[in-house]
């Protein structure tokens, strides 16, 4: 049994969040942009489900999975966008191209991965 000192000086039993090695590896990563956005969306749109996810010990795991999925999907979408829309060489057009690329990719990620309910 591992003990850990709390900020108030008390010794508390340190419990593992999960027994799954994959989930433990996920928990070592910080929650990124997409996972934080999902958590905020869930708090706003599905507050009753948040309490259930916390009790099921999934509230800290799901956003990290979402980050991983979003990063992988971003790489695929970015490659596809660059292939279908060559980057211009003119500075002003290049700025518009970058802005459009980011907005389109972010919109797809939000729709496909972040704004989804758990079923």
Concise synopsis of the structure shown:
This protein is mostly helical and 119 residues long. The protein is built from 5 helices and 2 strands. Helix 2 (33-45) crosses helix 4 (62-84) and helix 4 (62-84) packs antiparallel against helix 5.
Please tag this protein with its features.
119 residues; two-stranded antiparallel sheet; mainly alpha; 5 helices
Question: Can you put this structure into words, describing what you see?
Answer:
By secondary structure, the protein is mainly α. It contains five helices and two strands. It has helices at residues 21-27, 33-45, 47-55, 62-84, 91-114; strands at 2-5, 11-14.
How are the secondary structure elements laid out?
Layout: E1 2-5, E2 11-14, H1 21-27, H2 33-45, H3 47-55, H4 62-84, H5 91-114
Antiparallel strand pairs: 1-2
Oligomerization category of the chains in this entry: single chain
| Secondary structure: number of strands | 2
Q: Could you give a short account of the major beta sheet?
A: 2 strands, antiparallel
Note poorly predicted spans. none
Order of helical and strand elements? EEHHHHH
The separation of the N and C termini measures: 36 Å
Total count of helical runs of at least 4 residues: 5
Main sheet strand line-up:
1-2
For the residues shown, what is the average pLDDT?
89
Helix content: 55-70%
- Class from helix and strand fractions: mainly alpha
Shape: elongated
Rg: 19 Å
Number of domains: 1
- Relative strand content: 5-15%
């Amino acid at each position: 049994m591992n003990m850990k000192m709390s900020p108030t000086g008390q010794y508390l039993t340190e419990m593992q969040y999960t027994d799954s090695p994959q989930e433990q590896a996920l928990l070592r990563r910080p929650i990124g942009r997409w996972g934080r956005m999902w958590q905020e969306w869930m708090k706003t749109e599905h507050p009753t489900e948040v309490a259930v996810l916390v009790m099921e010990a999934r509230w800290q795991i799901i956003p990290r999975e979402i980050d991983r999925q979003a990063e992988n999907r971003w790489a695929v979408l970015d490659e596809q966008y660059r292939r279908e829309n060559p980057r211009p060489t003119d500075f002003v057009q290049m700025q518009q191209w970058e802005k459009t690329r980011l907005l389109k990719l972010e919109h797809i990620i939000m729709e496909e991965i972040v704004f989804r309910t758990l079923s």
